[in-house]
Structures are given as C-alpha cells and as structure tokens.
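hey can u check if this looks right to u? its 344 residues, i copy pasted from the old doc so theres a chance i mangled smth
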Amino acid sequence: MTSSGEAQFRLTVLNPGGRDVAQSFREAGEAIGHAPVNFHAYAACTNGSFHRDTKQAVAENSAVLLLLRGDFKASERALEELKKNKCRVVVSLKETGLHQIAQQLSDRARLSRFLRIIAKADGCIASTPEAAEIYQQARSKSDPSTVAFIPTPYPLEDRQWNFTVPPNQHAGILVGTREWKVPSRNHATTLLVSRRLCEATGERVTVFNLDGRKGRQLLAELKFPNGKLRVIEKRMPYVDYLREVARHKIVFQLDRSRVPGQVAGDALLCRTICVGGDGAIDRMAFPQTCGEGRTTNELAAIASGLLNDTNRRATLVLETQWRAMERLSFQAIRPQFANFFAKL
C-alpha cells in the first residue's frame, strides 16, 4: 500500500458487550479514556476507534478487528451483523496467553463457535506468534496470508507517554507478576529469586498484592530482610502505575505464558529494563534479558549484573528503545495493518 493509503487507513476495534466505552483516536486530544495499549493500541496507532456496540462499529465505515471474548456468543452475533453490512472483518481472541487459549477452547460449545467464527471471518490478527499458529491451523483451508502476527504497539514517539526518570532516582526491583494461582506466571519463584537478589545487592523489592490477607500471608512466609519488601495493595490508575515502574532499576518476572507482553511494554514506556518473561514484546524488545531460552539462574545473574552496573543499564535502555521504535512503535505498526488489509 502507498504511503497515502497507509495514512488514510483506520481500524475499528470491536469488543462486543465489553466494559470499555466507545473511544476515538482520530486526534491525540481525543484519546481520553483507556490508555492506547493492548487492543486499544491497535485502534490508536491507526487513528481509529474502539467500540463495544456493533452498530457504532459499522457506522465507522472502516476495517474492523472483532475481539472474541466470554463464551463467544456476542462475538458471533457481531460477526453476522458486520458481514451483513459488508464490512471487512478480521478476528482475534481477546485473551491470548497459551493457558488462556487452552482454557477457552476446552469447552465444546465455545470451541464450536470459535471454529465457525474463524471460518467466516476475512482473516485473523494475532498479538503473539503462538496465537497466529493456532489461527492458521483453525483456518487450514484458507490462504495463509489471511493470518498475521502484529504485536501490540506502544506510543513510544509520543512525549506524553514517556515516563523517564533520571538514573540517579532509580532504586530497587519491581516484580512484574502478581498471580499466584496461574502456574505459568511462576510468581512464587519470581519472588524467591527477588529475595536472593535483595540479599545479595541490598536492593529493595516492590510487589503488588491484590489478594488481600491471603497474599500478605504468602508474602510473609518468604521472610524478606527487614524493610526490604515494599508491598502495594491498592489498584492505581495506569499512568500512576507507570510512574511507579519508572522509579525502579529493573522489572523482574519469570512468566512463561507466551502472552503479548504488557509488562515488557510498560517497561518500554518507562525507559527501564525488563528481565525475564517470554511474551512477544519481551522477545522483540529485550532479547538480551528476556526469558526465552534462559534458565532461572541465568536470569538471576543478568538481573544481578544490571542492578550493580548503571552504565550497562543505560546502554541497554538505549538499545531497547531503538529496537522498539523500529518494531513496536505506532509508526512501525500502522503500515503493517494497512498492508495486511490491502491484501485481503
């Protein structure tokens, strides 16, 4: 597609029956509401819109990315209405970690709807390479070019989403995971490694606990050195959370869920380093520190080195920002959408 065609292309993301209100990203000043991350970022990077009402999505008169959520009933009804109105429609599961996909497709009725939707859609967009492979298998008789992996972009070129903190104000480790019950998150192991890093380097560890008393009891069992575990128990607005992330030397996680990688994406906005994790963003932006192909001990050694070496951290930040600007910024992802839809 020509550059003028790319500039004119806009994507409408439809999450039928979802909780997020309608939102336009036509102009920067209109982007008030949900931050331009995750699936909202797909709309934002194309100056498109995000909707939960199918009629409003049709009225946009643009290409549509339909999200599959819940039991997929609302998604299937939305697809039928969109096709009646001759919209170009591609689909994506809203929850795309491998454990989430497996759970969703373990129900017979939901699996049946998923296969019907995948077959009727014009194509599929995947926020992880692994999800793309699943869509290709489900659309085995279709042209492979109708499935594309397009990572969730981040507004790295936008100054208002730059949460840089001066290096002399960086301190400690932020634990990137929170879920004790999801085995592939490896939250307990992440905390055990963080405790050892704390003991070896003297750095304080910050962790979010959204499990109340049970979470406090579990954290107490780890017996961190006195004054070296900082627990945050309140939910906070996204921008406040980013300011919190930005104050730390590194973000550490051992997530093996093959998710899109928002923890790593948040680190990009904060101009800090994410160590561990095998999400799509982790692998693309942080190849030198991600969990792909590395053992827990290797990641602990990488984290320890970064905590003690300011110059190394600064160099890695520059490298990751350059790499992300080339592959994950809005300006990098927008033409991928335009070209994909042009070929359908």
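The longest strand covers residues 63-68.
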